From TrEMBL:
Pfam families: HTH_3 (PF01381). This is Putative transcriptional regulator. PROSITE patterns: HTH_CROC1. The keyword Metal-binding does not apply. It comes from Alkalibacterium gilvum. Residues 7-61 form the HTH cro/C1-type domain. Keywords: DNA-binding. Gene3D superfamilies: lambda repressor-like DNA-binding domains (1.10.260.40). One of its GO terms (molecular function) is DNA binding. PANTHER family: TRACRIPTIONAL REGULATORY PROTEIN-RELATED-RELATED (PTHR46558), TRANSCRIPTIONAL REGULATOR (PTHR46558:SF3).
Length: 66
């Protein structure tokens, strides 16, 4: 699984730490870190919560460019 640099960039644009985002979507900071590293594949429900928190679409963060 590839690193999710789109998630990291979207979080940084809002000046949110991994902990800030984790608190917003009710997961641990380690979960956000693992998603960004590409070590964890989040559920669709978690993807949706992250997108709502960052005000982006699923395609913006989780769609892989071919």
């Amino acid at each position: 699984m590839a690193k999710n640099l789109k998630l990291k960039a979207a979080r940084a644009r809002l000046d949110l730490s991994q902990q800030d985002l984790a608190d917003m979507v009710d997961v641990t900071r380690q979960t956000i870190s693992a998603i960004e590293r590409g070590d964890y594949n989040p559920t669709i429900n978690l993807c949706r919560r992250i997108c709502r928190a960052l005000n982006v679409t699923l395609n913006d963060l989780f769609w892989e460019d071919s």
